[in-house]
Each structure stands twice: as structure tokens, then as C-alpha cells.
Amino acid sequence: MKRYLILLAMLLAIVSGVAAQEPIAMDGKEWNIIERIPYYIDLSSDVRMWIEGDTIVDGTACKKLYTRTQELWEGGKERLEVGYCWQDGDKYYQNGKLMFDFGLNVGDTFSIHEYDDLVFACMVTHVGDTVLLDGPPRRYLHLSPYYYGVVHPSPQDTWIEGIGSLSMGIVSNDFYHDSGVFIQMQSCSYYGLYIYQKNGTNVEVPQHLSAPSTPYYDLQGRPVVNPTRGIYIKDGKKIAVD
User: Fold this and answer.
1) 3-state SS, residue 204
2) Cα–Cα distance between 169 and 130 in angstroms, integer?
3) Other C-beta atoms within 10 Å of 196: how many?
4) Residue 10 pLDDT level (bands cut at 50, 70, 90)
5) Alpha helices in the chain (DSSP H)
6) Are 188 and 168 in contact (CB under 8 A)?
7) How many CB atoms lie within 10 A of CB 233?
8) Are strands 237-241 and 230-234 parallel, antiparallel or unpaired?
9) Which of 146, 169, 170, 200 gives a 20 to 30 Å CA spacing to 35?
10) Nearest by Cα to 164 from 201, 194, 139
């Protein structure tokens, strides 16, 4: 009995004290992003990115990353690109580039863009946990541009575990897009279930992936499509499945 109580106390400590470690690079993840060119007459594109299937690149096990871009002006051209991504602990890589490091802490810097001999970076200014749509707690990092030894208050960005950037999704980890295109993530979902949805938008998540009946998470905060017997998190609460 004593051993059982100790194990139960450890599980409760894990649930209450540790933020979710849900990776970005997993089947079923999908992002909806809007791209706009501000200096022209509403030249915008709808970008949908999703992860589905496995591949191997240079000996590394990766996930396939699909990007479908649909122009929203006359002509409506559409293109589909296939890339790759993987995650190693807190670090998420996309097409060979380190995009996010969720293991950073306040005061740490992260290189976001390199041009000639100049390196543009951001600095982590705040770290905490947040709950989105009644899901499990997720670690977030608030960042600001950092150059010439000074932290600049604007623009700013927020990274959230399992989602990416609230400004750009996983299109880029840069505050400034090279082409001058304005980027805004509209939603992030897992098998059609919203993880994040920007306020004031009505985004229809495409149903090319089969959706699980109910969203469960394991004690590490990872989504579970078909839960077996054990302890899970659902709607922000710990439950037991027999």
C-alpha cells in the first residue's frame, strides 16, 4: 500500500508540476496560415501545412511535411510542396534547419536569421505555462528582437510547445520575412481537433485526416488517439481509463 501511495504521489506531481512535452513533428498536426503582400491590392494566399508519414533524410528518421499554397486572387494558382521535419527533445528541425528550441530560458538568445556576416537573434524575455482550449498545460516562450546588445520591445513573438510560433506557425522562426510578406497563423489542429484558433477567425480545418473521437493526452502531454487502460489528461483534468 505504501509503495502504491508513493507512485500515486509521483504521478500527481508529474501532472501538476510539469508542462506538456508534446512535439510538433507528429502525424496529424496541421496549420492554417495566411500570407499577404501589404504593398499590393490584397495579394494573399492560404497556406495549409500538415505532417503525415515517415521518411529518412541523410540517415535521420523524419516526418513528411506537406505545404499547400492556394492563391486567393484571380487565377487562384495552387502548389504543393513536400519537405521534412523531425524533433530531438525540445528542438524542432525543418528541412535541415533548427526552427525552435523550447528548452530555452529567460535571457537565452536564439539565432533567427543570418545575412553575410551578420546574425540576427531574439531573446527569451518570459517563460511560463498556458492552457489552450482546455487542453494540457503547454510551455510558452515570449521573445523579442535582440541586436547590438539591446532587447527591442517590438515586434514580439510567442512560441508554444507542440504548436510553434503564434505569429507564423512553422512557416518561419524569423520576425521579418525576407520577401516582406505578412504572415499570420490562423489555427493549429491535431487530427481535425483545434489546439489553437486565432480569435475572430472562422477557419475550416480540412478533413483529409481521420479525426479521433475524443482528445486524450498522456502524462507527458502527448495526444493519444486510441487510449488503452491507464491514466490520461482530458479537458485539463486527470482521468483513469479502464
Assistant:
1) coil
2) 17
3) 20
4) very low
5) 2-17
6) no
7) 23
8) antiparallel
9) 146
10) 139
